[in-house]
Amino acid sequence: MPIVIRNPAVSGYFYPEKPEELAGQIESFLENCTLKPFQENAKKPRALILPHAGYLYSGPIAAAGFSTLLNYADQYDDIVVIGPSHRVYFDGIGLFSGDYFQTPLGNIPINKENNQKLIAGFSAQYQNDAHSKEHSIEVMLPFLQKILKKEFSLTPILCTKVNPVIIGEMISKFLENERTLIIASSDLSHYKDYYNARVTDRETSNLILSMDYNQITENMTCGRAAVRGLLVAAQKEKMHIDLVDLRNSADIVQADYDKVVGYGSFLFY
Known about the structure:
The protein is of the alpha/beta class. The chain has a single domain, classed as LigB-like (Protocatechuate 4,5-dioxygenase, Chain B, 3-Layer(aba) Sandwich). Helices cover 38% and strands 22% of the residues. The chain contains ten helices and twelve strands. Strands 2, 3, 4, 7, 8, 9, 10, 11 and 12 form a nine-stranded mixed β-sheet that branches. Strand 5 (100-103) and strand 6 (106-109) form a beta hairpin.
């Protein structure tokens, strides 16, 4: 059978298309991260919440979260990224049936064994159309390729309307493997003015840190299903959560203060 590759949908738009430029931008984000004392004292991450906007806006906040992996880069073989489907709406858990996700930095093999387990145990279905143009998973991958510096398998999952307990049970199963990392891909508030965005995002951050998933509403996070599900798993697994970075688009580009998007990075261990 022919190899099926999911080609980049937002390279040259959300992040640089040229491999050298992309790698250099990620290196710059990581080098300029201001949270090195936190990184050095952090425990091995088992899960992260990270933003998925264009690198110009959310790249520094994403880098802060990704930087917590630097001391443990050789300890992950499988990455599970759970993100929202912004363009195609469906109920349940949406998988990709192909062989690779591609970025300018190379191809990442899909973990088809995980796919089969999700189909059998969680009624997941293939949603290739939803994956084809979706950015919420794609923008995570160049960071992972740059930081892990080795081949790893990917389980890309899209979801919109799913009971958080189901997502939590799914994440708990993945966490049984110590060499699996979970990423919940989500931005925070959208298109509020700067002051109200900061208030809402701080409230959302406090709810995440207290694992109060029931109080997280749709206007707080676009990746609500993934975030709430991860908090269910965190409660069950007695995980600890640290806030790594919390800013918004206006903090990064110093513009558009009347309509900003919030970004947060959270570490689970």
